[in-house]
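dumping the sequnces here before i forget
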Amino acid sequence: NAGVMQNPRHLVRRRGQEARLRCSPMKGHSHVYWYRQLPEEGLKFMVYLQKENIIDESGMPKERFSAEFPKEGPSILRIQQVVRGDSAAYFCASSPGTVWSLHFGNGTRLTVT
Amino acid sequence: DQQVKQNSPSLSVQEGRISILNCDYTNSMFDYFLWYKKYPAEGPTFLISISSIKDKNEDGRFTVFLNKSAKHLSLHIVPSQPGDSAVYFCAASAQGGSEKLVFGKGTKLTVNP
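..and the predicted 3d for all of it:
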């Protein structure tokens, strides 16, 4: 039973480029969450999605960041025109319906040069 | 504004002894608390949780204690094993169906053989 799959594991982008991070939830899970971990910090909530719907995006920066979870395919976190401050580990988590049973992926480490 | 605080960045204990990791919170709306364990280059994995209607929850070597009046919880690991060496994150969720977890910055536990 595959866990939450994130790819790529490592992503290097130059300032101004776009970053696309993908997350495939566990089988049977229809709720996806994205968290970001800056160096020496805890994980910070970014966005919560269900299939084709953004439920809570209160943790998303207002500009350059977007997320989707289409009917078919993985959830995508998209960062446009990346800056050095976007360098972080981005974790995706999924659950069957409640936050009490979150399963995290191994993260994507984004480095902006 | 850090709502969940783990004031000890690191903790070192001897194998076989007790490890006590502490967590304080400020938001009185939090009613569910979780501990996650994280190894380097991996995602957090769920360890144990506690609802605000309880003051103790036990699972094998792991026990979480909650003191609501002090807004404090702790994780006890007895006996500690070298494989327990990891970063431990405390997380909290608010009532009303909030679907986001608020994490502390983590405590790095090292268990020495």
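The longest strand of chain A covers residues 43-50.
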